Amino acid sequence: MVLNATVIEEIREALGDDTLRGFLVRVLAEVEDTSDTLRKLLAVQDYAMVAATAHRTAGSAASVGAAGLHAALKDIENAARKAESVSALPGLVSALPGHTAQTRAALAEILGPI
């Protein structure tokens, strides 16, 4: 599931399209920044900060109904917390821009270009 339509509709009904769009723009920018940060943290093998960074951004994604991004970020967080899973991190982090693009496309179907 790329989007949680229930969350998006609740925000839309409570705050309107413009506010929802503003939240989504900020979260998508945060995810893009997080992708860059995660790559840098992986380069220095700071797995605790990888987990913390992914956790923070996962919460932002969940709060606006970006379920696919939330799941991808939780996968990164969980992998960073387990020594036996850190080898999966490069692939998970490199997939994040694709998840972002998928989310942006799904949102565009609902709200127009984001």
Please trace the helix and strand order, writing H or E for each element: HHHHH
Unreliable stretches covering 5 or more consecutive residues: none
Question: Describe the biggest sheet?
Answer: none
Radius of gyration: 14 Å
Helical fraction equals: over 70%
In whole angstroms, the N-to-C terminal distance is 19 Å
Instruction: Label the overall shape.
Output: elongated
| Discrete helix count | 5
Instruction: Give the oligomeric state of the chains in this entry, treating copies of one chain as homo and distinct chains as hetero.
Output: single chain
Strand residues, percent: under 5%
How many E strands? Answer: 0
Mean pLDDT, as a whole number? Answer: 96
